[in-house]
Amino acid sequence: MRAFVWKAFTGGSRRRRGFARDRGGASAVEFAIVAPVFLMFMFSTFEVAWFYFVNATVDSASINAARLLRTGQVQKAELDKNEFFYDVVCPKLKLFGDCSSRLTVEVKTFSSFSELVADTTPVVCQDEEQTVIDAIPYEPGADESIVRLRLCFMYDTINPAIGMKLAQNEAGQRKVMASYILRVEPYTKQSPAS
Q1: Full DSSP string of the chain
Q2: Which residues of the chain fall below pLDDT 70?
Q3: Is 191 part of a structural domain of the chain?
Q4: Looking at residue 26, what is its pLDDT?
Q5: pLDDT at residue 191, rounded to an integer
Q6: Beta pairing, strands 146-156 & 173-183
Q7: Which ranges does the record mark as transmembrane (predicted)?
Q8: Is residue 190 in some structural domain?
Q9: What is the pLDDT of residue 19?
Q10: What torsion do the CA atoms of 76, 62, 121, 127 make, to the nearest 10 degrees?
Q11: Is residue 158 included in any domain, yes or no?
């Protein structure tokens, strides 16, 4: 009986040593440990890159719209609020979703820069009440007017659990804003004939 117990004990230890030497599943275990961390870094890098792409596109849309305001093209064409919104600003941002549910555009005229500085009204975004959104001003101004253009785009995150921990609303959207202050050129004044 003693020999049987000893043989069972030493045989088991050989099996355990053999199991410890076996490296057949090591790659699978290493992958299971490293893969989640690698994927988290990869997706968070993609999230940050996507955010900066959206931010640059919103900024580009504001620059293009401001150029049209500054040169008087919007005023000459007599674009109303919807035409300015859908024909000038929205085409640049359609890639990111429906503009009417994500974007607000404010165009406001000021009589002086001190009046502009004194205006502390916050940017209105699509997560506000509809009455507040409807009250957003659209005043493209005239010759030599001081105009402030503000855009607010509600951006959907790809994966809100990773990436940048920026403030977001209840729907998981983040606000991307762009502002541009300009003085409208004297577009109605004719240059003297040479």
Answers
A1: -HHHHHHHHHHHHHHHHHHHH--TTHHHHHHHHHHHHHHHHHHHHHHHHHHHHHHHHHHHHHHHHHHHHHTTHHHHHT--HHHIIIIIIHHHHGGGS-HHHHEEEEEEEESSHHHHHH--PPPP-TTS-HHHHHT--B----TT-EEEEEEEEEEE-S-TTSS------TTSEEEEEEEEEEE---TTSPPPP-
A2: 1-24, 160-165, 190-194
A3: no
A4: 79
A5: 59
A6: antiparallel
A7: 24-43
A8: no
A9: 54
A10: 110
A11: yes
Nearest to 79 by CA among 105, 97, 59, 98: 105
- Find residue 138's DSSP bridge partners: 107
Our CA angle for 150, 152, 153, nearest 5°, is 145
Q: Compute CA distances 169 → 59, 109, 163, 165, whole Å.
A: 21, 30, 16, 12
| Residue-wise burial string across 146-160, b where 16 or more C-beta atoms lie within 10 A, e elsewhere | bbbbbbbbbbebeee
Backbone phi and psi for residue 89, each to the nearest 5 degrees, phi listed first: -90, -45
Phi-psi region of 169 (alpha: psi -120 to 50; beta: other; left: phi over 0): beta
pLDDT at 157: 80
Domain containing residue 120? 28-183
Asked if residue 10 is part of any domain, the answer here is no
